[in-house]
């Protein structure tokens, strides 16, 4: 007796990271006919915080291949999969046209923004960094021009003021599940409705690297807070320098307490100056101040800013800056 999935269109999934894992898990839950999965070899220099697409596929006896890019072996496995539909979810390499054009029922990507806004790379981190109040996931047709194909579906959700890049990633993963569950039937029967993207609303952002996490204390406290929460754990982090050492600010918050704010004489301090009030460590910004909550020297564990390890450094009169600054 054939499996119930044998009569359904075959799906080749290109997936990685937590949204990719969520996509495969939802396809399995909906008994989709996944004939092959393509994923990546984990990079040795990347902290892997997300679940493994490779392991999930193996556990469910699905043909799976991992590589850095779509190589000759991937092309052979794809041809053997006889896929009718291609779905991509956070796959990091370019999928060649010869694969995209082979899917009779179409090739679709799940992108972590509400297209046409936030095309490009690191769209989740950029959205948090820019203080956006909302983002989401878009399923769109894959074309030669990245992130520009017709929209099939969108699932929006709010970015709360205390969300981080990580928590928004998890929300993206949940939105992927919702879209797959709702739109898998129309992908399989070829009746998905297409909407052309409005190019006048398009924005595009590039790849981020660890060096982009440097803090400019002349910016306002809210802007710096958005940087910190966009790249805090498990991402590379926001940092500054003190006494020739890199200091990571893993969490901090703008001072909203009016009583605490009244205790600070803003005219006495310049951006980057440290202000110690009781057990609180505060940094003057371009406007307002940030209350440090969790910090660490490079490659050291997170600690509270009033921990003994910072007693001789994080004190009133000291200064944090973009460049290496000698303490007095």
TrEMBL record:
GO cellular component: cytosol
EC identifiers of the protein: 2.1.2.9
Cross-referenced Gene3D superfamilies: 3.40.50.12230
Ranges where the Formyl transferase C-terminal domain occurs: 210-299
Pfam families with a match to the protein in the record: Formyl_trans_C, Formyl_trans_N
Protein's UniProt keywords contain Cell membrane: no
Keywords, comma-separated and alphabetical: Transferase
Domain Formyl transferase N-terminal per the UniProt entry, residue ranges: 48-174
Gene Ontology MF annotations: methionyl-tRNA formyltransferase activity
InterPro entries noted in UniProt: Formyl_trans_C, Formyl_transf_N, Formyl_transf_N_sf, Formyl_transferase-like_C_sf
CDD domains xrefs: Arna_FMT_C
Protein name: Methionyl-tRNA formyltransferase
Taxonomic classification: Bacteria, Bacillati, Bacillota, Negativicutes, Selenomonadales
């Amino acid at each position: 007796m054939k499996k119930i999935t044998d009569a359904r269109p075959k799906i080749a999934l290109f997936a990685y990271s937590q949204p990719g894992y969520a996509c495969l898990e939802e396809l399995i839950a909906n008994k989709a006919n996944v004939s092959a999965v393509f994923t990546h070899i984990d990079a040795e220099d990347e902290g892997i915080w997300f679940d493994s697409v490779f392991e999930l596929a193996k556990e469910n006896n699905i043909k799976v291949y991992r590589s850095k890019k779509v190589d000759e072996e991937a092309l052979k496995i794809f041809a053997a999969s006889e896929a009718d539909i291609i779905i991509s979810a956070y796959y990091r390499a370019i999928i060649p046209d010869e694969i995209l054009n082979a899917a009779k029922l179409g090739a679709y990507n799940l992108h972590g923004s509400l297209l046409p806004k936030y095309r490009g790379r690191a769209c989740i981190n950029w959205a948090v960094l820019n203080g956006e109040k909302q983002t989401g996931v878009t399923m769109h047709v894959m074309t030669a021009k990245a992130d520009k194909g017709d929209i099939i579906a969108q699932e929006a959700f709010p970015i709360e003021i205390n969300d981080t890049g990580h928590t928004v990633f998890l929300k993206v993963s949940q939105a992927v599940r919702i879209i797959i569950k709702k739109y898998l039937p129309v992908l399989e029967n070829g009746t998905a409705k297409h909407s052309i993207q409005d190019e006048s609303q398009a924005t595009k952002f590039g790849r981020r690297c660890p060096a982009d996490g440097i803090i400019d204390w002349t910016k306002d406290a809210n802007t710096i807070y958005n940087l910190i929460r966009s790249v805090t754990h498990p991402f590379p982090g926001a940092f500054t320098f003190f006494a020739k050492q890199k200091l990571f600010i893993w969490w901090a918050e703008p001072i909203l307490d009016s009583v605490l704010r009244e205790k600070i004489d803003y005219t006495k301090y310049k951006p980057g100056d440290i202000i110690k009030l009781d057990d609180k460590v505060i940094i003057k910004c371009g406007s307002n101040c940030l209350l440090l909550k969790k910090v660490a020297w490079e490659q050291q564990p997170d600690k509270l800013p009033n921990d003994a390890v910072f007693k001789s450094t994080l004190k009133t009169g000291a200064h944090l800056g973009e460049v290496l600054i000698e303490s007095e």
